[in-house]
Amino acid sequence: MKNIIYILALIVLVSCKESTESKQIVKEIAPISDVVLENAVIYEANIRQYSVEGTFNAFTKDIPQLKELGVKIIWVMPIFPISETRRKATGGDFASLIKDPEARKKALGSYYAVSDFTKVNPEFGTKDDFRNLLKTAHDNGIYVILDWVPNHTGWDHTWLKTNSEFYTKNSKGEITDPLNPEGISVGWADVADLNYDSKGLRTAMIEDMLYWVKEENIDGFRCDVAGSVPTDFWQEAIPKLRASKDIFMLAEAWEPELMKDNLFEMAYGWDTHHKMNSIAQGKETVKDWDSRMNQIDEMYQEDDILMNFITNHDENSWNGSVKERMGGASEAMLALSYAAPGMPLIYSGQEYDLDKRLLYFEKDTIIRNKGKVWPLLEKLGALKTNYKAFNGGKKAASYLRLETSNNDAILAFEREKEDEKFIYIANLSAKPVTFKPTFSGEFKEALTGVKVILKNGEEVSFGSWEYHILVK
Question: pLDDT for 346-363, tens place per residue?
């Protein structure tokens, strides 16, 4: 972090699911609970791109390290076989249109075009390899949730031949890809849209989900485009899943109704993320962050959890790397994703300073060299783990906006729980600013250990994107 200069202050700071395989016994881990969620960090594992090998085993080797970052939940992107029919390649074309056979082989398609919900993608390894991943995570006190795709299947799925009534059809009786409310394709031509008016589909989908919970002992699901699936399906499915085991449910959605009545514990903080991007790009200011915090209070119940992130697989591949989108604001926004109410996400490669857009339909590789981000994530993970004021679950720490003389540029807020509190204060602009706090106190900068004194009304100078986490 950049230097901090307090004008007229007393000190100057220097900142800072094929049972033919032998079945391994997966170690029992205490059921996931609300207590676990209070200080959890979630990690999104992109198995294909995580390593040169692109396998379960290569990722499994690094699971013990994730404890160093405070990770308590691993969300594994879809592990299922991918349909060959209408498989996509970079650029959006179908792989079948690629004339060069060697180039065609490189088109691996989208994880989300599933051909079988009860098998694993052989590119990643065997089901026993996945069981070993799960066992290793449990041995290290980490829970594993699967990325589930309930809205559609790939065009090779058996249901297309055996149960065409499971799918959405047009006026000609043809199965369609997902359509928008106006009946126009949303662009996902590699998948066939599922129709939840079919009771048979609902039964089959729940049976496949139960397989992974009951037979393979996974700890929950991240559900892709959960808001596009009828809420009454989730009201039917989730209680049946929970009757088998305590699980954690994450919705890739923003809709508040998905978190009511013990359905999903957590949803995406999409609009929070969009504010971070816009502020980093100079399109919005701290006042827009304040509006978003007020919106959360109005839209969601007090015990709803939102996932905070500065990147994920969609953002990285389609909208750009963290550096592309956030530039100099990247570190301040990363710290904010931990400091704000909710659960922070780490996406594969983020911990290794990933600075490129990963290919989506082909093999790519994350270079795993620890640079600036790993040690920062260690410190932020420790704060999230050890300070109640960082709690972001169903009994989250309070959030109090603190005023300064420059509320357009300076974001300052205090979070408190029981006898612990901290202040996040940052210049969320690309220009150096001076401001006067309207609060006082003697603090320690949590990331550097430096002593900080703030005095009400005394002018302070922050460099561009300078931020601090201050603890009593």
Answer: 999 999 999 999 999 999
Task: With residue 220 as reference, give the H or E element that holds it.
Answer: strand 220-223
Q: How confident is the model over 153-198, as pLDDT tens digits?
A: 999 999 999 999 999 999 999 999 999 988 889 999 999 999 999 9
CA triplet 118, 23, 241: central angle to 5 degrees?
A: 45
Q: Cα–Cα distances in Å, from 210 out to 23, 166, 335, 351?
A: 17, 19, 37, 33
Q: How confident is the model at residue 460 (pLDDT cuts 50, 70, 90)?
A: very high
The SS3 of residue 301 is coil
d(CA 353, CA 377): 11
Cα–Cα distance measured from residue 354 to residue 371, given in angstroms and rounded to the nearest whole number: 10
pLDDT tens, residue by residue, 258-282: 999 999 999 999 999 999 999 999 9
Q: Which two tokens stand for residue 420?
A: 């612990």
Which residue type occupies 229?
Answer: V
> Residue 91: its pLDDT value, please?
84
CA distance 92 to 318: 12
What integer pLDDT is reported at residue 264 of this predicted model? 98
E strands, 252-387, are: 266-268, 305-308, 343-347
Tokens 């079919």 belong to residue? 198
The ranges assigned to domains in the chain are: 26-397
Q: So what CATH class is 26-397?
A: alpha beta
CB 140 within 8 A of CB 77: no
Two tokens, residue 346: 């780490």
Q: Report DSSP state, residue 341.
A: S
| CA 158 vs CA 153, 204, 205, 259, 296: distances in Å | 10, 12, 13, 32, 42
What is the model's pTM?
0.94
Sequence-distant (≥ 6) Cβ neighbours of residue 72 within 8 angstroms:
36, 39, 40, 41, 42, 141, 142, 143
Instruction: Using the CB atoms, write b or e for 52-80: b if 16+ within 10 Å.
Output: eebbbbbbbeebeebeebbbbbbbbbbbb
Q: Shortest CA distance to 193 belongs to which of 161, 151, 164, 252?
A: 151
Pairing of the two strands 152-154 and 191-193: antiparallel
Integer Cα distance of 382 and 183 in angstroms: 48
Averaged over 288-314, what is the pLDDT?
A: 98
pLDDT given for residue 18 in this prediction: 43
Tokens (6 digits) for 93: 């074309």
- 3-state secondary structure (DSSP) of residue 267: strand
